[in-house]
Prior knowledge:
- The chain is mainly alpha-helical.
- The protein has seven helices and no strands.
- It has helices spanning 3-15, 31-36, 48-72, 76-93, 96-110, 117-142, 144-152.
- The longest helix is centred in the C-terminal third of the chain and has 26 residues, at 117-142.
Amino acid sequence: MSFDQIRNVTTEQNSFQLAPRGSDTDEALDIAVLTAWEKVKTDDGSNLVVDLIELYLQSTLPRILAIRNAAAEKEWVALKHAAHTLKGSSSTLGLRQVAKVCEELEEASSTSCTDGVEALVQLLVYKFIKAQQALAAERDRRLPGITRTLQRG
């Protein structure tokens, strides 16, 4: 995978962020963003989109727990950092709702108005569950042979 390939996908992905409200961005997963990653070829021939989905699914729960813990402890700098990190990885895969809640958490942790942080953390968990379901379905769709074998066994 070359730097130019990644830059091109990232540029395309960023252009999708300007879609109007009520469009596909209101869904848990903006498939156009995820599909843009198909253009990137890996050196080992693996399915990059599936790899990105797996990485996101494995790394996100610990990040959400860090956000929850930081909010409970009123550690605003840690909360802002964790929310910022999750916002970036969510945006990269087209998980706009998760990214939006992370952005709101970032903003809340930067101001003195932190009253709604707990509600935002709960909303983040809800949005992540929806995103997790959408990503799992997309991963399974991209690996039909493996999925069918696992379902039979």
